[in-house]
Design brief:
Layout: E1 9-17, H1 25-43, E2 47-54, H2 59-67, H3 72-90, E3 97-100, H4 104-119, E4 123-133, E5 138-139, E6 145-147, E7 156-158, E8 166-175, H5 181-190, E9 195-196, H6 198-209, E10 215-216, E11 218-219, E12 227-228, E13 231-236, H7 238-243, H8 245-248, H9 256-262, E14 266-270, H10 274-288, E15 295-299, E16 302-304, E17 307-308, H11 319-326, H12 328-338, E18 345-346, H13 349-379, H14 391-412, H15 416-437, H16 439-442, H17 449-470, H18 475-484, H19 487-491
Parallel strand pairs: 1-2, 1-14, 2-3, 9-15, 14-15, 16-18
Antiparallel strand pairs: 4-5, 4-8, 6-7, 8-10, 11-13, 12-13, 16-17
The structure holds 5'-O-[(L-methionyl)-sulphamoyl]adenosine.
Amino acid sequence: MERMPDGRSFYITTPIYYPSDVPHIGHGYTTVAVDTLARWHRQAGDDTWMLTGTDEHGQKMLRTATANGATPQEWVDRLVTESWFPVLRTLDIANDDFIRTTQERHERNVQNFLQAVYDRGYIYAGEYEALYCVGCEEFKPESEILDGTVPFEGLKVCAIHSKPLEMLHEKNYFFKLSEFQDDLLKLYADRPDFVQPVSAMNEVTQFVKQGLKDLSISRSTFDWGIKVPWDDSHVVYVWFDALLNYATAVGYGEDEENFARRWPATHIVGKDILRFHAVIWPAMLMAAGIEVPRGVFAHGWLLVGGEKMSKSKLTGIAPSEIIDVFGSDAFRYYFMSAIAFGHDGSFSWEDLAARYQAELANGFGNLASRTTAMIERYFEGIIPPEGTITDGDRKIQEIVRDAAANADAAIDRLAIDEAVAAIWTIVDALNGYITENEPWALAKDDAQRERLGTVLYTAAEGLRALAVLMSPVIPKACETLWIALGAAETLGRLRDQPIRDAGTWGQLKPGSSVNGLAPLFPRVESTID
Ligand code: MSP
């Protein structure tokens, strides 16, 4: 996706989640990825805005509310306050806004948008009969309709939910999606990174090349939704309503200045909802004469026991199950580093526990505590100056410089796992450097005092860069490390350190004092059998 000069707008979104599910680690994965990218850009000085929220209309919501003896509004209010707001704190998310599709700022401007597209001639009334999946909230294409097996023999089921489809026959309003086939194909050809990764772009292009059908965008058999402005016997189709959150949240229809400042957005979505974002959404915007998004990135699925993790298949894991044991930083680090962003990845407790111990506790945490402890022991807690530099010291400086540049380039490509891998070269190099230079042996020889100072300065300055570069991923541990390095007093707040300058050597001030550091990643008693 296009690179912006410093200070330019960076607007990034998560999908808005259906609150009828309790949040699981699949939702957490998307949200943490978006938060990591937003934190990076914010710290780079870009004019950053991160949006998340909930998708509260539609038949699925109405049915679960009714089944639970509540009105849909009571039901969503309860779920959003009891589950969806708190999970953001659990995951340590620094979102700038949270949109709910039942908010007036959204409903009003969905109507404005619909009216505008209607007035431009892209909406007409028609009849429709097709198989609908309430789980997907979608009329299913042939390719996603399967014959049911026990207990749904003889029925047609959804390929994603394995649940029976419902035949719906309704008078609906239709959006002329078919008219946008050529414009969409031209968009994909002109901007090959409009959809990422490449596999997602190929899938979308293939899909559009096969021809597009007009889209039913209203429903008249229930009323839990936004009314169609010219016909209040219809409510707007939930996906048409939901996609518009990205525009209404930043002022579409009522605060054009803010809209111009933020739009266009970068959308991060799971691959299950790629087509809505890469086909329908840009077509909707084209129909209204609005610029298309900056890009759409589809990440893979978290698999548990080889299957897409989902609550309905009883493989759902709540983020708090992991975070209560390992902490939010470990959750964030694990999912951002262990899974190639854009590919499926298997979650297992064993893998999480092993990486926590090897990479966070022994790799990063130990490096930080050894370095600060040695500065306390050998230099009364005062960071020593750097003396004469050897090739080995210079090598560390180069690794830090390259890691920072490579990580920033990876973030530009939205390759979060590659960014973490680039930064982690500093952890590995510094651990090797300490082992090779044996500061504990240098400390025994007064003649090596200057050399000891150089080695410990190098380690501490490397940690300074690590704290800055890793803070978008593991903000809590980096904040603790920042305080321990005494950097807050001399360099200011961690969040104010420009991330694109993190690789510039020599920022930590000799003469400043380090503070005691409790283990960043304490031992976790294994509860895994
Ligand atoms: N409400 C729609 C999205 C509307 S956006 C305008 C929706 N909601 S959802 O609650 O089902 O959440 C979808 C998103 O949650 C997925 O796109 C994905 O980002 C995330 N995930 C849900 N399950 C997941 C996995 N098992 N693995 C990875 N991500 C998953 O669809």
